[in-house]
Amino acid sequence: MLEILYLESIDSTHRYLIDALKQKSIRPPYAISAQRQLAGIGSRGNLWTGIEGNLFLSFCLYKSELPSDLPIQSMSIYFSFIFKELLSDLGSKIWLKWPNDFYIKEKKIGGTITSILHENMVVCSIGLNLLAAPHDFGVLDISVDKDKLLFDYFLKLKEDIFWKDIFRKYKVEFLQSTKYTYYDGNSAKKVSLREAELLEDGSIYLENRRIYSLR
Fold first, then answer.
1. Is pLDDT above 70 for 215?
2. Does 116 reside within a domain?
3. Predicted model pTM
4. Which of 59, 86, 91 is nearest to 75 (CA)?
5. Lowest mean pLDDT among 91-95, 156-160, 180-184, 201-205
6. Which residue range is the domain that position 132 belongs to?
7. pLDDT digit string (tens) for 2-36?
8. Is the torsion defined by CA of 113, 127, 4, 14 positive or negative?
9. Does some domain include residue 30?
10. Biggest CA-to-CA distance, the chain
């Protein structure tokens, strides 16, 4: 089981972990969980600030610890879907919008970002509104014991679940994503996912091109 550092407050668990890895003060596997986050990183570099008691988690692993068939560009889907399944088993109606956003019905309640360091380490961060949310965002629809949730999640990751098994289930859930839009960094605009085709490596085929997301 990896070591988890619990903090009361931090600017960003993601930045903290990356800085610690670069300074070689820690090494994988390692995780950080904070009670409150002041300047977390969201999609497209936006801030994901947080209310005390919500989930702010970052962890790092060696790439060699990941399943051999996992496309590196789909780490966010992989880590997110396993986390989502744990919550679903507890009775939540949470679903995963491509490629990294957690939703309850039509409201976003959290998301995942991933980074690659030195070609052999990966960093994943998950933020989830457990207790409260800013305007236009949602909150998880069940009560959870945060410590137990993290314990169970990291146990699940140790099972070395293959990407093919995650993809088989996620491609059914992906149909919900086609009702929404996706921010395309190349064109700097939101595009509809209505005609998007999910490919086996987690990318989508849309507007005559293949789109990957390393979020």
1. no
2. yes
3. 0.92
4. 59
5. 180-184
6. 3-165
7. 889 999 989 899 999 999 999 999 999 999 999 98
8. positive
9. yes
10. 47
In total, the chain counts a number of residues equal to: 215
CATH of the domain at 152: 3.30.930.10
Question: Looking up tokens 């986390």, which residue turns up?
Answer: 83
Counting the structural domains of the chain, the total is 1
The letter for the amino acid at 109 is I
The dihedral of CA 151, 156, 157, 158: what is its sign? positive
Q: Following DSSP, what letter does each residue of 68-130 receive, concatenated?
A: TT--GGGHHHHHHHHHHHHHHHTT---EEETTTEEEETTEEEEEEEEEEETTTEEEEEEEE-S
How many helices (DSSP H) and strands (DSSP E) are in the chain?
4, 14
13 close to 57: Cβ distance less than 8 angstroms: yes
